[in-house]
Amino acid sequence: MELRWVSDSGIESRDITELPNLLERQDGFLWLDIAVCDDAAAAVLSGTFGFHAHAIRDCREKRRIPKVHTYSDHVFLILHTLEFEEEGWGHLVELDQFVGDRYLVTVHGPVSPHVPAEALFRETDSVIRRIEAGTLQPRMPVELGHAIVSAMILGLEQHLSTIADTVAVHEHSIIRDDKRDPQEVIEQLYGLRHQLLLIRTMASLSREVYAGRRTMARSTGASPERLAIIEDIIDQYEHLSSLCGAEKDFLDQVLAFHEARTVTKMNVAMERLALIAAVLLPVSAISGIYGMNVIVNGQTDFAHVGGVLLLMGVIAGLMLRWAKRQGWW
User: Fold this and answer.
1) What whole-number distance in Å separates Cα of residue 228 and Cα of residue 218?
2) Whether the Cβ atoms of residue 323 and residue 329 lie closer than 8 Å to each other
3) Which of 200-204, 261-265, 294-298 has maximum average pLDDT?
4) Predicted local distance difference test score (pLDDT) of residue 328
5) How many CB atoms lie within 10 A of CB 284?
6) How many helices (H) and strands (E) does the chain have?
7) Which runs of E-coded beta strand occur in the chain?
8) What is the 8-class DSSP label of residue 294?
């Protein structure tokens, strides 16, 4: 557990034993960041802050759906970002928040063992660096929570930008008709499409969570500053969802073009194979009938063989001429 004190003078690290005293101070607010919600952390959340047992259980168990719950003196949020492996698999990275008037408690939820440790603290560490650099000066816990959520959204937007660049490379390759394995291209494109769907789903679900929080804030007479922060987060999630939708539409068109070109090539190949079969069919029939009677005799009749070969050539020529008129080649 990392305890920090945020005030007009910046951000300071404090010992966890100072927690009760910091809760009483009015010249700033505290930020408790919990890496793992173990028994000791759960005891602090329950004993010192008095959080609900259901909320603490949510922090200790993996939740796949965002959530918001408003209590009398704080708001509990479950939010997620995504961490993608090199192969494209996406893993949920959960970050829970207890937002009160004098404190912000962030709890990093359970994650897959495939998620690197640095991914858990990417957003919180970036916010700390901004405060230390003086580019961010939160006056209230809700502003600090807003900065963390904005960092989560920014990370998803950056990955979306990477996806868009990769799609553009595939598009150019498909248009140039580079000689690539069609199965490999399809798998890569559908992998990118799956990532877009994951990001858009996460953005849509999180947007609904903040929409519910906005409704509750309006009904309880929240300050204009708090409402403005909530509205900004909603706008950011809506913007991210719209970007994902637009990029997915573009990717679907690239997929459709690639599939149409592949199907067209297959149809052309099938037509050519059918033409070859049609041309060789009468030739095969004649050779099958005459082969045993003309060539395999004790003495070959060259005039007869020549006549049969000429007949085969004429028939093949007529078949090619007919296929040409049909537009097969």
Assistant:
1) 11
2) yes
3) 200-204
4) 59
5) 13
6) 9, 7
7) 2-7, 10-14, 28-34, 67-70, 74-84, 90-100, 103-108
8) I
